[in-house]
Amino acid sequence: MDKFGIKNISSVSLDNGLQIYVNERHNAPIVTVQAWVKTGSIHEEEYLGCGISHFLEHMLFHGSKKYPGAEIVDTIHSLGGDMNAYTSLGHTVYYIEVPANHVEKAIDILTDMLVNPIFPEEKFLDEKNIILRERDMHGDNPSRVMSERVWHEMFTVHPARHPIIGYKNKIEAVNRDMMVDYHQRRYSPDRTFFLVSGMVETDGVIKALVDRLGSWNRGDLREPFMPEEPIQLSSRDSTYFFTDPLTRLSMSWHIPPGGHPDVAALDILSGILGQNKSSRLVKNLKIRKNLALSVGCFSYTPSFCGIFGINALCMPENTEELEEELRNEIRNLANFKKSELEREVAQLETEYIRALRSNNCVVRIIGNSILSYGSPLYVNKYIDDLRAVTIPDLERVTNEYLDLEKSTTIRIIPKASVDLEESKPAVHNISDCIAIKPPELKTFRGGQKLVTFKDKSLPLLDIGIVMAGGAYFEERGQAGITGLMSVLLNAGTKTYPEMELLHLMDENAIELSITPGNNSLAIKLNCHKKKFPLALEVLQSILTESSFGARQFKREKKIAVEKLKSRQVSPQGCAEDRILNLLYGDHPYGISRQGAPQDIEKLTRQQVMDFYFNQCLRPDMAVFGIAGDFDNRVVKKIEKLISTIPWNNSPPLKIAPPEFPAKTIVERVKNPRKQAVVLNAVPGCDNLDKARFSVDILQAAMTGQGANIFKKVRDEAGLAYYTGMITSRGFHRGYISFYAGTHPEAADQVAEMMDNERQRLAETGLTQEEFNAAKAFIAHSKAELMEDPGSMLMQFCLAEYYGNGYLTPFRHTEIFDKITLNQTNKVVKKLMSYPAPVTVISEPDSSENPDE
Q: Fewer C-beta within 10 Å: the chain N or C terminus?
């Protein structure tokens, strides 16, 4: 393995079976403390189907002996940290992320909630209602429905066939005694390992964990009987109906679990088939034959089973042909090329290096290695295993596992009855913890700007570009043109035809994204430093000679329209679209950045080309950036790239500011699903307003488990599964909106509680406690951003693009540290006092029969 890997992993095993792993990372002043418990939904025995593992995960946040009531969440919130958990088929993970100086407090909280939960009866009933709502929400999501059906039909006797969340009637039957029994039976030191990663001192972390858990007694040592899944001897085939305009197809096979020597070859095979833009299924079924709107492949190998699968999205009329072509692809899956193998190894290896930037990704990799291989050391050996895969290995695993006679096919097709057209924590400055040099800026004669930001810790380079684009620049009747243009920029150039371009990027692990926003067009490129000359050549071709091919235009326009139609029947999507329209009216912000299907239908290829050359290529609004391990020769090449672009000096657009509603609006929109979504919004500020920092504090205070709105709506009333606040801003004023997902009967009550919370903020503003916690959370978020130079670079470029100055994000800690509660509440009270709030309730159409 090359020198770039996960290092400094220390481990200790206690007499009671508990394992401790510490990974020192000194690149950012943050720490993640995680407890991995080797129990999940497959271990529930007589409680199988109750979702009790997931239910227990929820309940552990409601108090422990040392931290009763809401003290667990409130304490972490006050430290500026975040905490959460997730449950899988085979394990449950609890994690706390805090500034590094609070690591011992995070350990104290996580160990006590794991060993000494209280399970308060009143919270038990509330949480049950929330989980039942979550179960209903799963049924409103076609992708989740597909996944659930796949597992249920792939497995006939193994408990993996049952959903992690459980079944509604069984969730309703869960009581507190069952919860206590399951916790005592399954939560024990010999089934648990702790992972701590970040800017920590190993001996101190180990001592803190040993002091708290060294006396934790082993519990029930028995493991549930796991029936061996019979070998699948014939194909399985099922069709389901759903209220969505698109068809979803899945084709799956059994493969070995994690830890098996064939895993690396299967991962590579999955990439060759459908994980990249030039993969065989994408190339043949989406690009060449226009049968799939999207198609992809996965190889999922937890420690106890494995599934190799293909998922595709298509128009209903293409279902049969797409399915047949999928089968043909599998029948003809042979003649692997050396270039395909090398491309996928390069992709997986580069993805691994990219993951090393993020503390959270590193911990996830280590944890999964421990689960599947019993050791954290496989995290680096995996790359060696990938490099050792040969073409004969690919041929062997294809023949051994991908037998159409042993496949499981699931299709979800549109339901015919639906009309588818209609305590004050310390705040640390970056310079207090890490020696990071600020970025530098150069301005060119034409007005273009270049931000440079060096980070030589890993052999990676990032390029960031922000240009004019997005809803703000889209003319009436062209909503969504930036999104369509973004896809076409990456769909072939004069020098590189589409498939050659996609192959080139995949084979060299060049990661490129072109993303439309409300006010901009953002381009991000990441590559290994040794691939930079080629990556820059590709980028130059995309920016200067994209072909906007007629065939690609027709294909991508159709995909965009169909995906928007699917969005229109999503509870969240139709609520968001309607509230924008009510707030902004005819202003460009009045339509979501995804656009409107009726507008995209009418767009011509020439209009898309004109938009790119006339609106996006404006030199006075273009900000380029380079970050990572580079020298002056790289900077010179970027400067040369800038000089080759056909810039257009068209006059800037003159767009009148939005006129917001003068009267309160409450509107209901209908969706064909079971769940309701509630939004409550008021106008916000723009991106040059100093009030934006106070709005950021408000959003941080209103988001997460410690937020007042979350406690009232979810914890106390049990009316919503999720709730929080979103904010937006741009060249003109954005908006501030509470949001919640709930059940239809509670929608009006949730809307009222949202408005009450808005009025509380209008009258009294944030409390000192809310303010302190929000500032601490923002400080922690800024520290996390330090892990990824590419993300930091985009922050610098966006700040310069909007006119705030490229150094503003670098000074965020200092800026937020100086903001007072009084300053923030002046902004909060003013914005929340807007006399005409807009509320949208997206709810089921009672005239439709709900899906079963």
A: C
Cα(682)–Cα(660) distance, rounded to whole angstroms?
Answer: 9
pLDDT at residue number 849: 46
> Letter for the amino acid at 288?
R
Question: Which one has a higher pLDDT value, 219 or 267?
Answer: 267
Structure tokens at 837: 């709030």
Look up the pTM and report it.
0.86
What is the token pair recorded at 698? 């408000």
- In order, the DSSP letters of 546-608 are B---HHHHHHHHHHHHHHHHHHHTSHHHHHHHHHHHHHHTTSGGGS-TT--HHHHHH--HHHH
Q: Can you count the helices (H) and strands (E) in the chain?
A: 31, 22
For residues 192-221, one letter each, b for 16 or more C-beta atoms within 10 angstroms of the residue's C-beta and e for the rest, the string is bbbbbbbbbebeebbebbeebbeebeebee
Confidence of residue 848 (pLDDT cuts 50, 70, 90): low
* 812, 785 contact by CB (below 8 A): no
Tally of CA atoms within 13 A in the half-sphere of 263 that contains its CB: 23
Residues 628, 637: Cα–Cα separation, whole Å: 15
Residue 204 to residue 27: CA distance in whole angstroms = 19
Q: Rounded CA gap, 307 and 516, in Å?
A: 34
Name the 3-class secondary structure at 241: strand
Cα separation values, 676 from 235, 594, 840, Å: 38, 22, 10
| Banded pLDDT at 394 (limits 50, 70, 90) | very high
- Strand pairing partners for 626? 452, 463
Q: Is 18 left (phi over 0), alpha (psi -120 to 50) or beta?
A: beta
Crossing angle between the packed helical segments 52-59 and 176-186, to the nearest 10 degrees: 90
Euclidean distance between CA atoms 105 and 84, whole angstroms: 16
For the chain, how big is the Rg over CA atoms in Å?
27
List the 408-414 sheet strands across, edge first.
Answer: 236-242, 408-414, 247-254, 307-314, 294-300
Instruction: Give bridge partners of residue 440 from the DSSP assignment.
Output: 452
Report pLDDT digits (tens) over 1-28. 455 678 889 999 999 999 999 999 988 8
Q: Residue 434: is its pLDDT beyond 70?
A: no
Nearest to 57 by CA among 110, 18, 106, 17: 110
Decide if 297 contacts 310 (C-beta within 8 A): yes
Centre a 10 Å sphere on the Cβ of residue 847 and count the other Cβ atoms it contains.
Answer: 7
> CB–CB of 724/739 below 8 Å?
yes
d(CA 23, CA 31): 10
What is the distance between the terminal CA atoms of the chain, rounded to a whole angstrom? 51
E strand or H helix at 762: helix 747-764
The pLDDT of residue 3: 58
Q: Are 186 and 151 spatial neighbours (Cβ–Cβ below 8 Å)?
A: no
Q: Quickly list DSSP for 243-275.
A: SSSSEEEEEEEE-PPTTSTTHHHHHHHHHHHHT
**In the block, residue with structure tokens 């243009």:** 485
Contacts of 22 by beta carbon, 8 Å cutoff, 6+ apart: 9, 10, 11, 195, 196, 197, 200, 202, 205, 206
